[in-house]
């Protein structure tokens, strides 16, 4: 998409002029694309926006994983200065290099005004990267831990024997953790918050598909969240013919009756996704 | 509440004492953690006051941090390692601390010696200067106690992660680069009698909507005063606008007047020809910047935009 880079560069130059301790300012997105920059030529070879994007996603992942609310800004102090990362919107960031003598109060005040102008200019841009998924895979490859979120209609709890499956898998596998509504939704806690945090937390999303689950708004929303966040989706269905194509394109297991289910084998399929 | 320790017994009491003291010294503290640089939790402590109404405290309690300590430790170490690796400016500089501000909390991570990280989570009421002072004092005491712990070799695997990400980033850059917005002053000339037939208004609207950086003048522009208000005659209107513009778009039909093009050439203006009768284009008109008319106006506008971009970036083509 086209964007008025000249206007942004002018804003960045004016922003830098406000503070003598500012060394450079860059606007980049979560894909690592530099939208505009105001840097002295001596620093140009030090700019690697992909690394900045990785840094931002790492911090965002950390916050999301532990539900410590949304990122606003972060800064890193080095022995020779600061790097400030200000979130303009969920996908765009303003990076400011400063010396170690910067007065933060003044910088934050100037930045808040500049952020508003920049947000207006970049507001229509979108991203298509899968950086979140790559980070998740990376974490999994090192920790070898599996976090399963069960999404099901309450009416199907007995049909799929949800509690027993969770109990069996957790007790027989120390590296498997499970969240499901009847146990992990604390009394008084907002259901949307439960859904959002559970989906963000998991690295395997398990949909217990049935005619009841298709009628459940909560299940549908959880599935969409998982899909949007690039989670690995696994469906356990008791009605294969009614399984949406989207779920069929991911891994699924056809549940006929409880007695015939080999839980160890099923978990193995989920882990190997 | 003090978390479990993964160190030898002799140091546990001292760790407990330091962490307890830290939590007690700042009421806004939610949790404090000592993590090794390879993602292992060394010790942890957090405010577990059941009467606390702080949403972060509730959040951490719901999340069952004790059960997920290894995940927490890994993630914060990964973040610090990435920042250390990705934002270093020169070999002499050293990462000192990371400060994260969210809507409801503040997180401070400090390097503790060269092999550990001290992390403290505060609620949003925390005064930064006070917290940093307290963190630094605790770090001094903790540095001497940091034990050796098993390695996960995150640093080695980070290189592979970066390589993978770089490949996918580069693919994205190729498919959707940031295009600088078209900017400039454009003067569009066409036979006025063919305004309706050529759908000039629709073309102008689309060009203006898609390119807010362009300022376009044309004879029938209703928003601006037309030539009769500001110019004594058609010629002075034409000459004034021709002088004003950066690029002259000549919409050529069988009824166009070649003199318009000749004057633009004489004034050394960048000219983009959009011709409905390219076979009738005068021989002296360059065909390098001529666009054949398209019935599909969206396609036509895209071609005009592409032509304008060429003229803006490579004016010597003229």
Main β-sheet description of chain B: 5 strands, antiparallel
Q: What sort of overall outline of chain B do the alpha carbons produce when their principal axes are compared?
A: rod-shaped
Pairing-aware structural class of the strands and helices of chain A? alpha/beta
Strands of the biggest beta sheet of chain A: in what spatial order? 3-2-6-5-4
| Helicity level of chain B | 40-55%
Distance between the termini of chain A: 35 Å
Low-confidence stretches of chain A: none
Order of helices and strands of chain A: EHEEHEEEHHEHHEHHEHHEHEH
Q: Count of DSSP E strands of chain A? A: 11
The largest chain-to-chain contact, stated as pair and per-chain residue counts, equals: A-B, 62 and 66 residues
N-C termini distance of chain B: 76 Å
| Spatial extent as radius of gyration of chain A | 23 Å
Describe the largest sheet of chain A: 5 strands, antiparallel
Q: What is the SS-derived class of chain B?
A: alpha/beta
Give an overview of the whole structure:
The complex is a heterodimer of chains A (273) and B (318). Chain A is α/β, with parallel strands linked by helices and 273 residues long. Chain A has 12 helices and 11 strands. Chain A has helices at residues 5-17, 49-65, 104-122, 131-143, 157-160, 162-172, 181-184, 191-201, 211-215, 217-228, 245-248, 263-271, and strands at 2-3, 22-29, 34-38, 71-78, 81-89, 92-98, 146-151, 176-179, 204-209, 233-237, 251-254. Chain A has a 5-stranded antiparallel sheet, sandwiched between helices. Chain A has a 5-stranded parallel sheet with strand order 8-7-9-10-11, with helices on both faces. Chain A starts with a strand and ends with a helix. The model of chain A has no long low-confidence stretch (mean pLDDT 85). The radius of gyration of chain B is 34 Å and the shape is rod-shaped. With 318 residues, chain B is of the alpha/beta class. The N and C termini of chain B lie far apart (76 Å). Chain B has helices at 9-25, 55-63, 69-86, 128-143, 154-175, 200-210, 227-230, 234-244, 258-266, 297-313; strands spanning 29-36, 41-46, 95-102, 105-112, 116-123, 179-180, 184-189, 214-218, 247-252, 270-275, 290-292. Classes of the chains: A alpha/beta (273), B alpha/beta (318). Chains A and B meet through strand 1, helix 1, helix 2, strand 4 and helix 4 of A and helix 2, helix 3, strand 3, helix 5 and strand 6 of B.
